[in-house]
Amino acid sequence: GREEEEDVLCAARACSRLFGALLERRELFVGQLPAEEASLADNCSAEDKYKIWMRHRYNDCVDCLAELMGHDAFQVKELSLCTLMKFVELEAQYPLIKVEWKGSLTFPRELLKVVVDGLLSLNEDASLLISRFQEYLEYDDIRYFVIKAVTESIGQVMQKTKEKPLPFYQQNVFSLISPINMPNKECDMVKFMVKQDNWEELKVSKLQAHKQAFEKMWLSFLKHKLPTGLYKKVLVILHDSILPYMNEPTLMIDFLTVAYGIGGAISLLALNGLFILIHQHNLEYPDFYKKLYSLLDHSIYHVKYRARFFHMADLFLSSS
């Protein structure tokens, strides 16, 4: 009830203050964390025992917050999300990983993956929480690692479903990735949550690496059968939000061919995508006109995209 919710919020705020301070003061154990029992053996200094014990409590806290991202109350979800993101920022600044060699990146990828997994619920629409998360995607480093985490999540979740769509999960992935604003030029990438020392050498500062990760994410999302309504949503944003940021836009042919097979307005939108690939990316696609003519049956006169269809047909047929 309401009281229990208040207690949870108070506890989360207390943990946020406590572990936030410990991260800043570097009082949590850094490196490969020993099991709690082992560390209580005598060969550790009292200070190490304390740090190891506290680091285990911090891990418990993170697990707990991850679970609370699935709480019924939105306020609890939101506070859990924001607390975890505060920890991401602090761990990026004060890493809990020992820097093994000069070129290694100490960004807390695992912690960010916990957040992404929390946003991509399998059994409810998480769009409200996801929209709360959008502001973090303005940071180039966060965006890069979120893209990587989403790709990993899709691999883990979708391979289990044996080609049956998972409507909530796939809609949540779409809600998270469709508004992503990709940088256009390397010099646009100036907003990082945390600058690492050897920044220049790292992939996270390279536009090419961002595009590669972005392309891989979309292709892994689109290679699985989608709930029908999602085909339309993807096709509508394809032109502006997806194709321009892919290294090889023509890799979308398979997806467009599957979408074309669905029929009705979706076929029409898929043809539009193919047309863009032919027109702007020099794709050779001999079947294009065959597909266009096969849509010209009676049913097209009833499609609510009728005006758009005739406009496109005109465009396609007048194209050299």
From TrEMBL:
<keyword id="KW-0812">Transmembrane</keyword>
<dbReference type="GO" id="GO:0030692">
    <property type="term" value="C:Noc4p-Nop14p complex"/>
</dbReference>
<comment type="similarity">
    <text>Belongs to the CBF/MAK21 family.</text>
</comment>
<dbReference type="GO" id="GO:0032040">
    <property type="term" value="C:small-subunit processome"/>
</dbReference>
<feature type="domain" description="CCAAT-binding factor">
    <location>
        <begin position="267"/>
        <end position="319"/>
    </location>
</feature>
<feature type="transmembrane region" description="Helical">
    <location>
        <begin position="255"/>
        <end position="278"/>
    </location>
</feature>
<dbReference type="InterPro" id="IPR005612">
    <property type="entry name" value="CCAAT-binding_factor"/>
</dbReference>
<dbReference type="Pfam" id="PF03914">
    <property type="entry name" value="CBF"/>
</dbReference>
<protein>
    <submittedName>
        <fullName>NOC4L protein</fullName>
    </submittedName>
</protein>
<keyword id="KW-0472">Membrane</keyword>
<dbReference type="GO" id="GO:0042254">
    <property type="term" value="P:ribosome biogenesis"/>
</dbReference>
<dbReference type="InterPro" id="IPR027193">
    <property type="entry name" value="Noc4"/>
</dbReference>
<keyword id="KW-1133">Transmembrane helix</keyword>
